[in-house]
């Protein structure tokens, strides 16, 4: 409630201000998108957690009623993935709660990075569990003295596949996750609405996809063992092969997480394109010390020094640059420093163009 009031106050200030089009914090669309993204992510994660908990209880109950576990490493790995999924969902929900907190004097940007840290923790858990399963699969390949109940394994794996398909559909995010407007537009139209991309939700989706791969491997090995019991080696082989697929699904989000933690440029915010957009503003001579970095997957900040030909009209230039940027991009924050062209030092190390 406090967070909602905080953002509502900002929204009213932007709408009711004397000149909202040129207000220094004219990123109400970014705040609105962020609030909508977090609400959507929380709702999906809550639904997924309920389904995951229900299936886990049903699976444990079913095994208890049967009086034994199937003996399949694949079934055990599937149960482990369900528990890991639920843990990952709860971590994602906790990180979303933290990101909703308003900024403090110590955390002036707010708690947005909690979402990224939560996603990183979820990916680490996936790698750890998958590593353990690969190790156990190797041990079974080396020591094949084990028994498997193919019937229980088949029933469990079929239910797991259906459950994970449902979880994947619930957690799927539409769109590529870019948060930029259409480029090359004319006039002063608002930027296109960005596709919502939440790191916590994406990490949960990777969990679900990984679990789906694992469940499919269980189902395949169960079918093989059910019809050909002598081929029980299919159980660890399928576990090993599909574990590799699970790890492969984490590469993209890990790359995005590391880019954000390294304060890299977000997808859809090309450095050269942003700089070119600033240079189109009248009386802007040059741009240096330009920084474009991501707080989250769709919360991008910008700061830049701008050399102008007419320092007496700096406020108008500042408004024009700010408006030009917000017309084309959905920035979370834009900070511009206006300087005179006469004050520039070509040999300044901080003013040099960064490498490609």
From TrEMBL:
Catalyzed chemical reaction(s): Zn(2+)(in) + 2 H(+)(out) = Zn(2+)(out) + 2 H(+)(in)
Location of the protein in the cell: Cell membrane; Cytoplasmic vesicle, Secretory vesicle membrane
Keyword Glycoprotein: no
Record-level GO cellular component terms: plasma membrane; transport vesicle membrane
One Gene Ontology MF term: zinc ion transmembrane transporter activity
Similarity remark: Belongs to the cation diffusion facilitator (CDF) transporter (TC 2.A.4) family. SLC30A subfamily.
Key words, A-Z: Antiport, Cell membrane, Cytoplasmic vesicle, Ion transport, Membrane, Metal-binding, Transmembrane, Transmembrane helix, Transport, Zinc, Zinc transport
Example GO biological process: response to glucose
Transmembrane segments: 45-65, 119-142, 148-171, 204-227, 233-254
Subunit comment: Homodimer.
Cation efflux protein transmembrane domain span: 47-262
Cation efflux protein cytoplasmic domain location: 270-340
InterPro entries: Cation_efflux, Cation_efflux_CTD, Cation_efflux_CTD_sf, Cation_efflux_TM, Cation_efflux_TMD_sf, CDF/SLC30A
Annotated protein name in UniProt: Proton-coupled zinc antiporter SLC30A8
Source organism: Zonotrichia albicollis (White-throated sparrow)
Membrane topology type: Multi-pass membrane protein
Gene expressing this chain: SLC30A8
Listed Pfam families: Cation_efflux, ZT_dimer
Function (record text): Proton-coupled zinc ion antiporter mediating the entry of zinc into the lumen of pancreatic beta cell secretory granules, thereby regulating insulin secretion.
Coiled coil: none
Chief site of localization: membrane
Lineage: superkingdom: Eukaryota
């Amino acid at each position: 409630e406090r967070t909602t009031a905080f953002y509502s106050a900002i929204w009213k200030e932007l709408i009711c201000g004397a000149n909202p089009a040129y207000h220094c914090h004219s990123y109400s669309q970014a705040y609105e998108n962020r609030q909508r993204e977090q609400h959507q992510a929380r709702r999906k994660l809550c639904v997924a957690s309920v389904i995951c908990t229900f299936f886990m209880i049903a699976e444990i109950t079913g095994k208890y009623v049967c009086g034994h576990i199937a003996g399949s490493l694949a079934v055990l790995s599937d149960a482990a993935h369900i528990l890991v999924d639920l843990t990952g969902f709860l971590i994602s929900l906790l990180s979303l709660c933290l990101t909703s907190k308003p900024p403090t004097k110590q955390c002036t940007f707010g708690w947005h990075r909690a979402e990224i840290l939560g996603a990183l923790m979820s990916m680490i858990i996936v790698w750890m569990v998958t590593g353990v399963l690969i190790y156990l699969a190797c041990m079974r390949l080396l020591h094949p003295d084990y028994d498997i109940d193919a019937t229980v394994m088949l029933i469990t794996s079929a239910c797991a596949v259906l459950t994970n398909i449902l979880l994947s559909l619930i957690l799927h995010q539409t769109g590529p996750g870019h948060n930029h407007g259409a480029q090359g537009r004319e006039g002063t139209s608002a930027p296109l609405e960005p596709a919502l991309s939440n790191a916590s939700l994406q990490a949960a989706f990777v969990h679900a996809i990984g679990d789906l791969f694992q469940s499919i491997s269980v189902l395949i090995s169960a079918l093989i063992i059910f019809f050909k019991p002598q081929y029980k080696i299919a159980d660890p082989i399928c576990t090993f092969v599909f574990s590799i697929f699970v790890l492969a699904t984490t590469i993209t989000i890990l790359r995005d997480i590391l880019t954000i933690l390294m304060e890299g440029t977000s997808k859809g915010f090309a450095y050269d394109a942003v700089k070119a957009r600033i240079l189109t503003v009248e009386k802007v001579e040059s741009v240096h010390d330009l920084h474009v970095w991501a707080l989250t997957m769709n919360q991008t900040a910008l700061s830049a020094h701008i050399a102008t030909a007419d320092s007496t009209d700096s406020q108008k230039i500042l408004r024009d640059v700010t408006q030009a940027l917000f017309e084309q991009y959905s920035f979370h924050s834009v900070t511009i420093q206006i300087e005179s062209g006469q004050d520039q030092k070509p040999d300044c190390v901080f003013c040099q163009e960064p490498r490609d």
